[in-house]
């Protein structure tokens, strides 16, 4: 039987794509903030450090007054003044914005009008928390000083750097940090900030940070001219989360870049060792070892593709090209899984060991592999594109349950077939083959137990996805549950099985 062809064309295409990721690197992860009910607060995990910060920029058309706060989630307990308690749910009800009625009720002072209420316990100073709060005025027809990302965006030509490097508003790091330090000192005295340039918030500590902006209507501006309809001017802006790394990936996804590069290196090293064994025992190779060689090559390409995909996302963000790239990666991932389980199944059924042909059973094996391939593509795309916090449980089940059924079908069929093949070899007293199949049985049994533990842990974790603090608690390790855990399990299982069936001088036995 001839060995499978090496998929060279996809490999060359991936080499071209990785070169694109090195052409440019975007500065940070940016999210819009809008005057809508579910878009007034933007949160993201952040890897803190000297170079990390949050910048909030509003469009020139935005106007009016905003109550704005930036904070790390651990300090959310200090936001708002507890007013009443819901006796049915035993949940505290809070007033978060200092309005005229809040001042009249004694929840805040008149000098805090238009700001978020910060209720600190006795003896805890304000500078010991991460909370930054102010009333932002957005005057119409204003001119906003550009940030460093728009340094060359000057219709009158490129700017000439001033003699004093600390005087320019488009420099960052120490100079812009000092500039915004002075702004924060000014805010602490009157609580009002006239917005003229991006609001800068240094992030020294790793955590889950939020930016909230709520329109605040002053008494004298509370009604339209010649009408009795209350209103507030709308706003539109963006929040830029600059982590310690450069790029457009969210902090929760960035570890995947290093993870998949490490997996690529590991699989590449294993592929070299496998190629050396195949070369040494070229004349003793079995058909199953040709297929294993093709799978080893596919694994190297898949890990390389995953690494390049996240590098591309980090450099260019989401778009048409990244969606196409995601589909390619999903196809590789689903193909690898389907091919792996299909090969295990036909081996467990005793193909070329107990029987020469599987007959109509082979069609059932191929149908199950095809279904697993399709559901694997849907799952791979879904875990990247869906937002777990806002997606309904039904939609999540559509992506997860079909793959779980085909996976369970493969595992149960493989284990049942293995038991039958082992019993057959034991009856015929073929001890050498029996030992290999028994080891394969124990490897798969351990994998099934680990998968069961994984599904229990994942179910417990995702069951609380609608909780208010779910993202804050899970942003650091969520990628591990979705990608890392199963990838490492597959690596351990595949290397164990491949090494068990490795090319050797005893292949013909």
From TrEMBL:
It is found in: Membrane. Residues 40-134 form the PTM1-like N-terminal domain. It is a multi-pass membrane protein. This is Protein PTM1. Residues 147-168 are annotated as: Disordered. It comes from Hypholoma sublateritium (strain FD-334 SS-4). One of its GO terms (cellular component) is Golgi apparatus. Residues 153-168 have a biased composition (Low complexity). The chain crosses the membrane at residues 259-279, 291-312, 324-354, 366-388, 394-418, 439-457, 477-501. The lineage of its organism: Eukaryota, Fungi, Dikarya, Basidiomycota, Agaricomycotina. PANTHER family: GH17801P, LUNG SEVEN TRANSMEMBRANE RECEPTOR. Residues 1-28 form the signal peptide. The keyword Flavoprotein does not apply.
